[in-house]
Amino acid sequence: MRGQVAVEYLVIFAAFLAIFGGVIWPRVISPAQQTAIDVFHLSRARELADRLAEMMNSVCASGEGAVRSCWIELGTGCRVIF
């Protein structure tokens, strides 16, 4: 009798895992991963914009003829729109 209960438990658990893996996982985890990637790219863009604004403020505060250099690296999928 105990063996039958253990087998039934394993079958129910396996069915749950199959449903979880086939239905729930792609609908929940994949969009969450894409959202995390989007947030990362937006935070990186914000960091670069803040750095550029800081450099511009520094040049304006230094007066006429002031020069300042800043290295900004953009990713391959980044577009600059003027």
Q: Could you explain the architecture of this structure?
A:
- It is rod-shaped, with a radius of gyration of 27 Å.
- The model has no long low-confidence stretch (mean pLDDT 83).
- Helices cover 74% and strands 0% of the residues.
- It contains one helix and no strands.
- With 82 residues, the protein is mainly α.
Summarize the structure.
The protein is mostly helical and 82 residues long.
**Which structural class is indicated by helix and strand composition?**
mainly alpha
Characterize the main sheet.
Answer: none
Tell me what portion of residues adopts beta-strand conformation: under 5%
* Helical coverage, percent range: over 70%
The N- to C-terminal Cα distance equals 75 Å
- H and E order: H
Net shape: rod-shaped
Low-confidence stretches: none
The radius of gyration is 27 Å
Beta strands, count: 0
Mean pLDDT: 83
Number of helices: 1
